[in-house]
Design goal:
- The chain has helices spanning 17-39, 43-64, 71-82, 94-108, 116-126, 166-181, 188-202, 209-225, 234-240, 242-252, 260-293, 301-313, 320-327, 331-343; strands spanning 131-132, 135-136, 148-151, 158-162, 347-349, 359-361.
- With 364 residues, the protein is mostly helical.
- The longest helix has 34 residues, at 260-293.
- The model has no long low-confidence stretch (mean pLDDT 93).
Length: 364
Amino acid sequence: MKYIYEYSNWPVFEWDESNIQLVLGQVRNLQGRVLGQMSSLGFKVQEEALLSTLTQDVVKSSEIEGENLNYDQVRSSIAKRLGIEIGGFVHVGRDVEGVVEMLLDATQNFEAPLDHERLNSWHAALFPTGRSGMYKIDVAKYRTGEMVIVSGPMGKEKTHYKAPKAIQVNQEMDKFLDWFNSETKIDPVLKAAIAHFWFIIIHPFDDGNGRIARAISDLMLARSDGSTQRFYSLSSQILIERKAYYNILQRVQFSQGDITEWLEWFLNCLYRSLESSKEAMNQVLRKSDFWERHKESELNSRQRLMLNKLLDGFDGKLKSSKWAKIAKCSPDTALRDIKDLIEKGILRKEKSGGRSTSYELEDF
């Protein structure tokens, strides 16, 4: 079978307009509603929603590639760069800073042209050590070797994709960037989907192509919204549907130019992302309501830290030992902090009980 880029009509894409227009209209309608709802809320709520969305986007985009970033580091890095006060910043590793730099450049500077230099700077930010895991790679420049994506044990490898030859990459990227930066009649949301697929097919870098493709989509989606405010995360939804994401890319890579199936999947995935943003919005509103209710409460920095973790969705049961470890204090201090919050009516013991006592937020 031939890859899509091996056909004579490459890179001319076709799609069934009747299949695409319905779901595109639904996406556009929901985009408007989400942005409208958020714009009606107060500045602090919008700020918290923006911080939450961008943090999720960075964490989930990396998780798609099997890399787990520290949520608190990502959140702290974004807050610091955007000037958002979160009550104390944590030390952030260079690997986290790089991914954050890329996403913020894509979403906050969405009107700036996308060119070779900008893409190379994103790549350099993703790989500050010049290595991907144990392997040294070409950084801040397009690949000079062949790109074959395989899986399976040595001797029984399965080839999933073979990208265009290295000698073709510069020319392919020239065409891509000319199209991306030109004024077209294509809706920006549709353009985000096409750009994502096209970039993945070229696979211009030694590594990081998936994360950069999703950043390119985020950039074009920001243009479609006409705003730096991000209240939905496409990467979070792609992670949920990761198997389908890779399957659809594998199928359409053999197309003769018709990418209807990919566009339909991308738009429906984006729609589900917008739908799930309602739940995230409710969490932000709940958090805002909580702090409004307790704005007069005397709380120390450890208590504020741990309450924010609970409001953001604490992983597992909150026990005094976990409190001590996360807040970096003694077990006795952790217990005093917790008892103080129980007396203030903010925390309570979980009713389920068990071998050791755990705590949860009081209903509010």
